[in-house]
Amino acid sequence: RDTQDVVRWRTDFPILESHVHERPLVYLDNAATTQKPYDVIEAEARYYRHDNANVHRGVHTLSQRATEDYEAARGKVQRFINAASPSEIIFLRGTTEAINLVAQSYGRSRLREGDEIVISAMEHHSNIVPWQMLCQQTGVRLKVIPINDAGEIQLDAYQRLLGPRTRLVAVSHVSNALGTVNPVQTMIELAHEIDVPVLLDGAQAIAHVPVDVQALDCDFYAFSGHKIYGPMGIGVLYGKTELLNTMPPYQGGGDMIRSVTFEHTEYNVLPFKFEAGTPNVAGAVGLGAALDYVGNIGMETIMAHEQNVLEHATSLVSSIPGIRLIGTAREKTGILSFVMHEAHAHDVGTILDRQGIAIRSGHHCAMPIMDRYGVPATARASFALYNTRFEAELLAAGLEKVIELFNG
Ligand code: PMP
């Protein structure tokens, strides 16, 4: 049965009280974005009510307060992922912008024609396309690690791809289309043996598994605030100081400079060198509140709960005739991707929506993985800390209804 804990957590999220098509909302689209607790909504509102001003520039009180709020949020991110210093935390719009920054700043300044970047077959488009753009600009080549039928990276093939021309490995920590948790620790160790840095796309990991960038020893880590109960439009690039210091700025503008003349500009120190223009201060404040919220519950507790819901949902859904699960890795987070013999994923999504159940259907911005499994799209239910075993049962009942409708 569902625990008192999850019943209590649910009351922290106002949107979970809503109804859709006159049914209580069952929100199972958390891999696309998570809902926000009062703490986050209030933190952002409080910032705008009491502290709003531009940061880093003014001597007046509000500007100083806004700067303190913004830098305090950076400190919260640093502690949450255990970075060595707050200056290794760069606030950006999200995972997408973080990966583009590394591709354009690190990639363009360091990589030459014939160099190789290794990604995996399960990447989100935002960890494919920025590298393809770099390939077009520089003649760098992309190498793709294959996966097995369960949706797991093939480590032996990965090892064979690492070679004298490899300059960077960029892989997802957790796959958004399959839920696979990748063996990133081993992958990083193997890359470091030949001095190749590793970027982790942490968009799907940050809210579901503990992330310690120093223990992982990853060189870059990218994530989005909105996937961990924080606001949209704020995200983070973590990078090791020694790497970030050698990289040129990504964008030019205010705040990223120390001095400017028409002949010459001296760039600011980290992290400001990579934060051109007025930042999303309210977003950073909201993200800080989200990390506090998650930290108070504890990642171990969240993981245990989400695994419990995932196991229940997996056994219920996989026993429905005509359903094929896509992604059955041993190490998974709360993502259940499947196709139905009777119905296209979009029909499944539409029929479930009539019952108040929100899932995603489509290619999940990972079209190559759809090709890998020979399907045009999947239906995907994805869980967060506020989802219940009861909701997993509603999902299964909803899917039975889909079958009835199509067979009826
Ligand atoms: N990588 C993965 C694995 C994702 O799931 C997502 C979001 N669906 C992204 C990158 C991109 O994140 P954003 O759109 O927040 O930049």
TrEMBL record:
Record InterPro entries: Aminotrans_V_dom, Aminotrans_V_PyrdxlP_BS, Cys_dSase_SufS, Cysteine_dSase, PyrdxlP-dep_Trfase, PyrdxlP-dep_Trfase_major, PyrdxlP-dep_Trfase_small
One GO molecular-function entry: pyridoxal phosphate binding
Domain of life: Bacteria
GO process annotations (BP): cysteine metabolic process
Cofactor requirements of the protein: pyridoxal 5'-phosphate
Pfam family, any one: Aminotran_5
Classification via Gene3D superfamilies: Aspartate Aminotransferase, domain 1, Type I PLP-dependent aspartate aminotransferase-like (Major domain)
Signal sequence residues: none
CDD domains: SufS_like
Keywords: Lyase, Pyridoxal phosphate, Transferase
Protein purpose: Catalyzes the removal of elemental sulfur and selenium atoms from L-cysteine, L-cystine, L-selenocysteine, and L-selenocystine to produce L-alanine.
Family, per entry: Belongs to the class-V pyridoxal-phosphate-dependent aminotransferase family. Csd subfamily.
Protein name: Cysteine desulfurase
Encoding gene per record: sufS
